[in-house]
Amino acid sequence: MRVQLFGTCMVDSFFPEVGDAARRLLEHCGVEVAYPRGQTCCGQPAFNAGYRAEARGAAEHFLATFTGSDPIVTPSGSCAAMVKHHYPELFRDDPQLRELAESVAARVFEISQFLVRVLRAHENPFRGCGELTYHSSCHLTRILGVTEEPLQLISALKGAHFIPMPDATRCCGFGGMFMAKLPEISLALADEKAQAVIATGADTVTGCDSACLMVIADALQRRGSSVRVVHLVQLLAEGI
Amino acid sequence: MTREETIDLFLARAALAAAGSRRVADGAALAAVIVQLVAGDKTVYCPALSPLEQAAAAVLVRRVEEYAQAEVTVEEVLAGIAETGSIVCASVEGRAVQASLLPSHHLAILPAAKIYATLDDFFQNLGAAPPTNLAVITGPSRTADIELTLAIGVHGPERLDVIVV
Amino acid sequence: MSELQTSLNFRKNAERAVADPSLRAAMRSATDTFGARRAAAFAALPDLELLRDRASEIRMQVLDNLPALLEEFGRNAKRAGATVHRASDAAAAREMILALLKERGVRMAAKGKSMVSEEIGLNAHLEAAGIEVVETDLGEYIIQLEGETPSHIIVPAIHKNRQQVGTLFAERLGVPYSDDPQVLTKIARRVMREKFLAADAGISGANFAIAQTGTLALFTNEGNGRMVTSVPPLHIAILSLEKILPRLADLPTFIRLLPRSATGQAITSYLSLITGTRKEGEATGARELHIVILDNGRSEILAGECREMLKCIRCGACMNVCPVYRTVGGHAYGWTYPGPMGMVLTTLLTGMEMSYPLVDASTLCGACVEVCPVRIPLVPLILKLRERRVGLGLSDFKERLGMWLFRAAAKNPELFFWGERVSRLFWPLIRRVGGKDVAGRLPNPSAMAFHRRMP
Questions:
Q1: Per-domain residue ranges of chain B
Q2: For FRET with C260, which of A231, A236, B31, C140 sits at 20 to 30 Å CA-CA?
Q3: Mind telling me how many Å the CA of C158 is from chain B's nearest CA?
Q4: Does residue C149 lie in a domain region?
């Protein structure tokens, strides 16, 4: 089986280790990982800010880059949601592109979704350790409906002890442009999330969206906490 | 749901809404309960229109003409709704619905046969010509406006008792 | 209460709110409590999703047939003895109501809670004309004494703690200080009772208006709604035109959804159904009932692409789960309606020029969509409004430039990668310019971007 890995723009610049881990993990599961060259961004930052034409531009490039019929796998719930949920509607007045968008949308998977539902990766053990808690990203849970899969993967980390976080599904405050436009509110939300993490007593917090993890890490650092913040695919890759 | 189950559900749901809820067999038993629930020194308004109301009125010591002067209203109500444990008061038969609102204690007599199982049943039966004023009442008045702390007894009655006969 | 809008100051309002520990604590407690109560109430109800589907269907039906339903309502209300007035905007509604009160020499009006009356700034208008208006809902009474506006559509004084209310009552009512809500409530009962009985008129809102019978439906807990609508001889009800429901038989769906969504109660203590005036031989009901139906921009919304916002039944569930509302409270939004429904409705009613900062007040987390009992697509509506703002040229020039560059880079990988390299090189400068609270939250860009690690 072969998949196309969509790294995402955030991972490309700021969290390439997440991309590395995604690749290693998928290969460990026996999947050939192709990486379509020239991939850039799904267009979400523009779309969420109301810049439809700009978002469409990015989306057109995405459609032209991720050709073929292989599953497209990405380590970001919000990017997967953008393609699956919004691309068809972005091209609503172009029947051809709309059809293409729909077929691409149907091929897109957030990585934990793919690992569990397609590869059954959670049925194999991974090495884990320490006390671990989990943040449920908003687009992942509410738009993609991916609620159980990350938890199933966490339970595959043998040796790690999972502690649920209170209000795990409450927004971390990233919100894309929101963090730049309303930083005071964004910081307050991230701080509440950091407090929730600290209250669990965990030494590690994980999640499936690098942007969320980024603001959580910043908030923990502002509180002087040494809790490790790490993407779920990294934990799994470390535990191979 | 059988009739009995409907009545039981009504009693349970009314109690959950902080209403006193009990069932008696007939007018005589009703009068006995009223003697327990309404102290002799309380001013009571009772329309005494229906037979059950008359049975109740017979044991009330200090009856007043005006509900606005009464500490207690004892009256038969139009209906009950089991789904929510509600009683229904309406402006039929020249009744004053405010009698269930102004006094501090409302004691509602509810004939078992007038208990509807669900809200849908009640509203279907209401048809297309409702009375001028109809109040679906569930428990005593309440508020949570201060720090979301429940306080029973605001502008409406502080106490509601429902007696199913 | 004034309809003066300060939404353009949303960010400043929000900043102030974020830095106010007592407000933050009150908002956290309130939203946590309501969120939990709502969840518990619906956990006990087996067919929530079916109910929501049905409610959404009924509300869409109303929107699709509004003129006919309004006409039917008017006919039936009139037949039952009410006089129905249509007010095209806030000024017309205020004038209408003032005229009705003045004609009858009303000196004091007892008022039940009505968000629409806040929207049109009714109280200030009446008071300026010398009519005393007493808010009888406890929460509204508290903020009226304080001279504030509501911060939540269901619990208007949610931002106040018990000590603040105790102090307020002691100072303004001359009663001994107490911060026990039970005691404070009894004080309000006593004070208000006199007002109800002395009022020349009662002014109320309505949760719904039933077209089939010309009936007004009011959900209340305190009893003040019943008082205000049945004790004074004159009752004026004001509601916005989308509050119509077709038939009495539609009510049970909303009885099951509205109280649970709002406060987690299975039903409110009182549901009043008022059909016209007191008839011959009756002992209950106002002698005169005037129903003012307000448009104030809603017909236009109805004709547009954001019409689904008019399905709203004002339950407040969305604001109780909104992370932004939780953090900044209701006043920050700068107008009558806060939280998710408030962002959208305010922008639609008052216009983008007066409201555009509000469309940013969301992380698009979708918590509101999950709880809306009538399935309003709040997130898609917010996105539409953001698009509209861009189209109207109301977004920041730097942002527009940035988005233009973004598009160019997203379509052109070489430019994209070059942009990444430049950002990395100039990161210390970007960090300094962007500030520690924005750019400072990002990590340093990696020395080797992911795409360079892949074959």
A1: 3-164
A2: C140
A3: 6
A4: yes
Domain range enclosing C420: 397-453
Q: Is the per-residue pLDDT at C1 higher than 60?
A: no
Residue A44: per-residue pLDDT: 97
Per-residue pLDDT tens digits for C339-358: 999 999 999 999 999 999 99
Quick check: C407 and A46 CB within 8 A? yes
- Residue A168's identity, in one-letter code, is A
**Domain boundary, last residue among C299, C324, C350:** C299
Does residue C20 lie in a domain region? no
Which of B98, B138, B155 is nearest residue C222 as measured by Cβ atoms? B155
Where among C299, C316, C342 does a domain terminate? C299
DSSP per-residue codes, C24-75: HHHHHHHHHHHHHHHHHHHHT-TTHHHHHHHHHHHHHHHHHTHHHHHHHHHH
Which pLDDT score, from 0 to 100, does residue C3 have?
63
* Residues C364, A143: Cα–Cα separation, whole Å: 11
CB C186 within 8 A of CB B107: no
Q: B43-45 and B62-63: which strand pairing?
A: parallel
Q: Spelled out in words, what is the top-level CATH class assigned to the domain B3-164?
A: alpha beta
| CATH assignment of the domain containing C272 | 3.40.50.10420
Q: Do C269 and B133 touch (CB under 8 A)?
A: no
Question: DSSP labels for B10-47?
Answer: HHHHHHHTT-EEEE-SSHHHHHHHHHHHS-TTSEEE--
State the Cα–Cα distance between residues C170 and C256, nearest whole angstrom. Answer: 39
What separation in angstroms does the CA of C82 have from each of A79, B128, C214, C279, C289? 56, 17, 9, 11, 5
